[in-house]
Structure formats: structure tokens, C-alpha cells
Design goal:
Layout (H helix, E strand, L loop, with lengths): L1 H23 L5 E2 L1 E4 L2 E5 L3 E15 L4 E6 L6 E2 L4 E5 L2 H29 L5 H26 L2 E3 L4 E6 L6 E2 L4 E18 L11 E6 L4 E4 L3 E3 L9 E9 L10 E7 L5 E8 L4 E2 L5 E6 L5 E12 L2 E6 L6 E5 L10 E2 L1
Parallel strand pairs: 1-23
Antiparallel strand pairs: 2-22, 3-17, 4-11, 4-16, 5-7, 5-10, 6-9, 7-8, 9-11, 11-15, 12-13, 12-16, 14-15, 17-21, 18-19, 19-20, 19-22, 20-21
Length: 340
């Protein structure tokens, strides 16, 4: 009796164990990342890389040598025409002005005394001309001394933004040595190098779209300045596109993406997927993993065109609204259930 009971219990445990193995053998859905394909509109035209430049740069300097006493502006600061930028030590200029004023006073006093003699007819004409000449020399020296003192103050000749500060307090400034540079960025230029085979397609009125990732902005290009001398090594011509910059968002040195367009250029509607989503079979054909409405993955043959950044244009095989696997496709096989 015991043997029969043991056999029954053993059979029951075997059935339960097989049932559990069967249940645990059910494969769970594979987790993947997907993307719903949508149509992107793009404008025909070649894209180039450009650099933003200031409209005009003005180097501001003292006209004489001296020690800089203080610089009142910083890089990136907006300044107005006539604003004080820096000052030079004016001790010597003040001393020279004091001497010139004393000479002027002495010359005027002599002129008054000699004038009375000249009017009385008791002063030779040659002496009268000589004293007038001395007065004129003293006046000229006084005006020069006043100018030298005024030149110890550096005034902004134009309005703009301080681009670079070359000298600081305590440094010796030489004549015509730039202390700061003032940049006019009310409008800017975008410099682009164009291959010689394409320069003929661009005119001064060719329209363009300029995108700058640094400020996440898009701008319409204006008139174009075309260079006439090619780079000897790269065989490219430099052009500069004028761009309005009233809000001062575009700054010199920013990298820009430039796309030229023509009147005939029309927007094209394209389907694209991440480059990594396109797989290649052993025979060289291409496919993507597409997810159906029942959450099953299927290989879908595709044909592709150009690569744009990290995406590739798909010509045939997928449609607007299809769901394509972008990550996790390594674990898939035909008909695999997925979750996303």
C-alpha cells in the first residue's frame, strides 16, 4: 500500500514539474526602442559651414606714448560713440600745459606794453612784428599742450561692443598700439568658403538660410560679397553673407550652417530613420525591423538614399506613420513580440 501511495505522489510531482517548466518556457516580449516615422520637409540646396564675422572692427589707440592709468570697459560691453574708454597718466601733460599757459601770459603782457610804444610811433616795425610772432608761437604751444592733455583720455570713436582688451592699467601704451577693439555687430557677415566648381552658381542676390546652433536660431541671408581670388591650396573662394542682427544674438566666431536656395527650389518631403536602424543581410540587401499593430516585429526590405547627419533617407519600404525599431533589434527574430 505504501508503495502505491509513493508512486501516486511521484507521478503527481512529475506532472506539476512538467507543467511549471512549460509555463516558464513561455518567452516574454522583448523590450525595444521605436520611432514613428514622419515626413520631413527639406529645401533643395547644398549646405556649407560658415563663420560669423563682425560688420566692422575698429582698433582704438592713444596717439602718444604713456602709462595706462585705467581702462574703464570690459570685453563684451556695449559702448557708445564719445564714451570714455581709458585714461593715460597725464602728470607730464599737465606740467607742459602749465608751462605753455605761463608763456602765453608772458607773451600777451609783452604785446600790451609794446603796443603802446608802437601806437606812439617810438617802436621800430621790425620789433613789433617780432613780438607778434612770439605771441603766435606761444598760442600754438598752448593749443598743442591742451591737445596732448585731452589725448590722455581715450574716447570711443564709434558705437559697438568691446571685442578684445589688449592693454590694462600699468602697461605702457605706444602710439597707434590698440588698447581695445570695438566691433559693430548691428549686422554681421557669415564667411563661407565655396569650391571653385560651385562659385558660379552663387550671385550677389542668391537667397540663403543660416542656422546657428549656439543660439538655436535661424536667419535669412541678405546680400552676398563674392571674393575674386581663390585659395591656392583649397581652390575655394570666400564669400560673405550679410545678416541683420538687431538683437545682437549673433557674435563673431559662431559656427553657422548655410544653405543656399534658388527661386526654382521647392521643398521635398522625405522619410528618414536613424542610420543605426537600417540593417544589412548577408546578400547585401537592406532592411529595418518594423512593428505591426499586434506588437510583432518583422523584417521589412528598404532602399535608401543620402545620409543627413545621423539619419538616412528611406526611399521605399516604409510609409508615414510606420513604427520602426531603433534600439534593441539585436535580440529580434521574425515575429518576435516586443514592448516599447
Amino acid at each position: 500500500m505504501k508503495k502505491v501511495l509513493i508512486m501516486v505522489i511521484g507521478s503527481w510531482l512529475l506532472i506539476v514539474g512538467c507543467s511549471e517548466k512549460k509555463q516558464t518556457g513561455v518567452k516574454a516580449p522583448t523590450r525595444v526602442c521605436t520611432e514613428i516615422i514622419s515626413v520631413n520637409s527639406q529645401t533643395n540646396g547644398q549646405t556649407y559651414v560658415g563663420i560669423v564675422e563682425e560688420r566692422e572692427a575698429t582698433a582704438v589707440s592713444f596717439t602718444s606714448m604713456g602709462v595706462v592709468k585705467r581702462v574703464l570697459v570690459n570685453e563684451g560691453q556695449m559702448v557708445s560713440k564719445g564714451q570714455l574708454i581709458a585714461e593715460m597718466d597725464d602728470t607730464q601733460a599737465h606740467n607742459l600745459l602749465s608751462g605753455a599757459e605761463a608763456q602765453m601770459a608772458q607773451a600777451n603782457d609783452a604785446l600790451e606794453r609794446y603796443k603802446m610804444l608802437h601806437d606812439a610811433g617810438s617802436l621800430p616795425e621790425v620789433q613789433w612784428v617780432e613780438i607778434q610772432s612770439k605771441v603766435a608761437q606761444a598760442k600754438s604751444q598752448l593749443e598743442l599742450s591742451r591737445k596732448n592733455l585731452a589725448d590722455c583720455r581715450l574716447i570711443a570713436p564709434v558705437s559697438g561692443i568691446i571685442g578684445r582688451k589688449m592693454l590694462g592699467a600699468g602697461e605702457t601704451a605706444m602710439p597707434s598700439q590698440a588698447v581695445v577693439s570695438i566691433l559693430d555687430i548691428s549686422s554681421v557677415k557669415v564667411k563661407v568658403s565655396i569650391p571653385e566648381s560651385e562659385i558660379g552658381d552663387i550671385s550677389t542676390n542668391t537667397s540663403s538660410i543660416i542656422k546657428v546652433e549656439a543660439i538655436n536660431g535661424s536667419f535669412s541671408g541678405g546680400a552676398i560679397e563674392k571674393g575674386v581670388q581663390a585659395d591656392a591650396l583649397t581652390h575655394t573662394y570666400d564669400i560673405r553673407i550679410h545678416v541683420e542682427n538687431s538683437e545682437r544674438k549673433l557674435l563673431p566666431g559662431m559656427v553657422a550652417s548655410v544653405q543656399f536656395t534658388t527661386i526654382q527650389s521647392q521643398p521635398t518631403r522625405q522619410l528618414s530613420v536613424p542610420v543605426t536602424a537600417v540593417q544589412r543581410k548577408a546578400d547585401g540587401s537592406l532592411f529595418v525591423w518594423m512593428v505591426d499593430n499586434d506588437s510583432t516585429a518583422h523584417r521589412t526590405p528598404v532602399t535608401t538614399d543620402e545620409t543627413i547627419g545621423n539619419r538616412i533617407v528611406v526611399v521605399t519600404g516604409i510609409s508615414d506613420g510606420n513604427r520602426v525599431v531603433t534600439e534593441g533589434y539585436q535580440k529580434l527574430s521574425e515575429g518576435t513580440k516586443v514592448i516599447y
